[in-house]
Every structure is written in C-alpha cells, then in structure tokens.
Request: fold
Amino acid sequence: MSIHPFAGKPVRPEDRINIGQLVSDYFLKSPDVSLAAEKVTFGTSGHRGSSTKKSFNEQHIVAICQAIAEYRQQQSITGPLFIGKDTHALSEPAFASAISVLIANDINVVVQADAFSGKGFTPTPVISRLIISHNNSESDNLADGIVITPSHNPPSDGGIKYNPPHGGPAEGEITKQIETRANEIIAANLTAVKRVDYQQALQSSLLAKQDFITHYVSQLEQVIDMQAIAKAGVSIGVDPLGGSGIDYWPVIAKQYGLNVTLVNEVVDGSFAFMPLDKDGKIRMDCSSKYAMAGLIAMKDDFDISVGNDPDFDRHGIVTPSGGLMNPNHYLAVAIHYLMTHRNWPDSCKIGKTLVSSSLIDRVAAQVSRPLSEVPVGFKWFVDGLADSSYAFGGEESAGASFLSRDASTWTTDKDGFILALLAAEIIAVTGKDPYQYYLELAKELGKPCYGRVEAVASFAQKQVLTALSEDDVSATTLAGDEITEILSHAAGNNAAIGGVKVVTANGWFAARPSGTEEIYKIYAESFIDEAHLQTIISEAQVIVSAAFTKAGL
Reply:
C-alpha cells in the first residue's frame, strides 16, 4: 500500500467527520440484513461498522443486546453485567441503547460511576478485570460484560463486543449464536426486543454505579512492580490518543508516586487532533508511526513514552533510542524480561499468534519455556490465561496480557496499561529502555526483518486460500532455503489457521484471507536481511497464485 502524502500530518477540514450527521444516522437509518454489508457480523473483536453505511445503527445494538440477554438466560448467567464505552462518537448513543434493553431484560447492569456525565469511559481491560474479580469471589453468580468500542477504527465507526464469564473475548461459537439471533431479530422488525424508556432505565434499581477506576488502579501492583518504577523516578510520557483510559493515568500516577506527564488531554469524538494514518484516514492506531507522530516527536523528553488505542487494549512503546518500537520486537522484549524476572512455574506457556515474529520462538527456547503458537485472534489465549497455564499471550498487532506477579490471572483480554507500565518497569530494573533491550536480544538471537502485504482476492480465491493444505504447496524451497514446515493448523492447539504458513530455517510466510474485505494478506519474516524478506514475499505471492491457478481461478 502506498503512503498517503498527508500521512503523519494534521487533520485537514475535509478529513473531519460530521458528528451530528453520524449520530442522526445511528437513530434514523435502518439496516437491511438481507445485505451482507448491513448485517450484524462479529469478527475477532465484536461487531463494527458505521451508521452512515447502515452497518452500525440502533437496530444493530438493541438486537445484539437482546441476543446477549437471551444467551445469558440460556447459560444461567445471573450475575451483574459490567458495561463500558470508549470515546468514539457513536459509543455514547450505543451505550444508552444497550442499557435500555439490558434493564428491560431484568439484568443487573453496572456502569462507571460518572458514565452519565459525558465522561465515564471504560477501557476493555478494566471490564475484563472486573469480571474476573467478581467471579473469583462469587462462583455461583457469574458476571460478564460488554464494551462499546470499535477499537482503533476511524471516528465514523462504532463497535460492540461481548465478554462472557471468563472475562475475555467471546469464542466463535458464542459470537455466531449472538450474530445469528441478532439478524433474526432485525429481520422480524425487532418484535423480540424488550426495551424500557432510557430515563426509566436510569432510575431502575437494576442499574448500579461503581468506581471502576479505583478498582482497577488499586490492583495494578499485583501485576507490575510499581515501587521499582517510582523508586527509579522513570519519566513517562503518555498519549491516550483521546481514548477511554485518559482519566486512569492521573490516578495511577498519584497512587503510586509515578512521574507521569499526560501530553494530550483532549477527548473529542471526531479525533480531529490526531495525525493522519498511512492511508490518509484518521485512525487511532498506537502501532502506526504516522498516527503516533506527535508522541514520537517528544521521544527525547521522557525516559519512555507510551500510547494506547481508544479502548486501551493495545499499546505503543516509544523510546529515546529507537522511536516507536515494532510491536513484534516489544513482545519479544516483554516476554524475555518477564520470564527472567517473575517467579512463575516453568510449565507456564508463552502464547503467540502464528504471524508474530519467530524471535519470540527463539526467546522461548533460550529461557526454556514452552511455546504455544495459535491462529490470529486473542480469543485463543483466553483459556490459558484463565487457568494460568499461559504466562503470556500476545499478538502481532500490539495486544497482549500476562499473569499477575503471583502467577494468578490478571486479565483474559488485552491490556494496554500493563504493557505500557511494563516498559517503565524494564527501565527501572535493568537500566535499559526496551529498544536497547531488543538490540541485545537481536544481537544474540538474530535480527528479524518483518513485513506484511495485501492483495485483491475474490470470494472464491479467499475460499481456496482458507482451505489450503500441505498438499496444495508444491514448492520445496523458499528464498533459497529448504522448506521445513507447511502448516494449515496451528501447532499450539491444532486449530485451523484459515490459510497456510510456510517455514524455513531463516524465514517464513503466512497467507490468509481477510474476514471482512476482498483481499488476502501475506505476513513474512527473514532473519537474513531486507532483500531476503522481499524475496520471501515475492515467492509467497507466486505460491498463492499457483494455488489459485490449480483451482481454476
């Protein structure tokens, strides 16, 4: 993909969204669920869409919440439902719609104390922590949760995701049931939806308010060595990117005596303060050097700088020595540090997605810890984090979580706070920033070159790619090296990867179709050099094209 000429530069007037129009469309436009683009569709992180395109409207939300209420009843989930919202413009109306349905279904709903003041935003990891904390103490009255967020998507988008009692992203079979039922409800003109007037819902005894901030922040020392950070006086620059954790950082700083500077305190549903992303769109992607341009420009002002996406389940790490870190490089550093500075059982696994860097494999071998490679999606780490058999679960898109210091479960969803604070802990304990730490790892274990490309693919081609197996790849070498493995299922759990991964001693590629767009993606890595990486990518494209030709496409 070519880089937009305005990438990394301030938003122009023509880039801004019309919030009034967006919210009007949310209430006034009706989706046609016979059209794929307007149906409820759950991806790896819930249902997302835009009200203007009729893919995220009030009908979607009330139908999804009714479907969740019915699922809870079927599963005998009788505890509270914790619900949070991020700072996207559509999150506020969707939050109100959701509450009116949940209360009507006699569900005990718990919200952040100031959720109805125009603030009261709640990060994804906080909802996960609330669910886990409740269920650890009340095993017969299980809680679950909803987060109203489209994550790092553009300002025009809205989103909703469901976290069942394990606290993490709902599994595919759960989201499929919710998705199917929600579309049935919409197709039947919402006759199955139970709903009360919003003002009536606010007065209901079923609605409770709780200080989520204090609950979460007071427990952070269970997972991060906050005393070490405070004692070392690590200076931390924080850019919440206008996201839901903005009110958490001042409380964290005050409670633990940390030297934190909030470099951006703006909350604006249009996100007009953001630099444009690589494609010229407004996108709060904390792993993008273009979206993070403002914080990168301040890299020499702090010992470490951190950013998060709007629902705070991702992290961006900026160091004076290396700027914005590649997410794969930071994952390797975090894993190595944790495995050598936590007293966790040797049997605890390191979880990674199959398109994450193989530097993680080499780190796992060096520290003698079992590695579990799973398909793309954080949901594959949930069970392992829940029963503490996984010490760490991380994915290439800058999302991760890990166990508490005593090896108990912290969250079963991605937590951008703890990955950001871990970077400060690494400096405090080792005297090295994470990029310096990475350079030492790379010198010892090999320096990876990582890349990702996209190509147009028809529906039929995507089906072929999803069904690829070892027998469909005739090549025996890749970029001059013998192919040692051809995988269609992840080694860690034998789940289908929805594509293929081809591995050699010096590199690999994985090809898989997009779940939402008419494209396929190639992820690749070389431990030789950039030229070798490009050769891997080129040959990967040939291998995929050959599979399409073999299928007559």
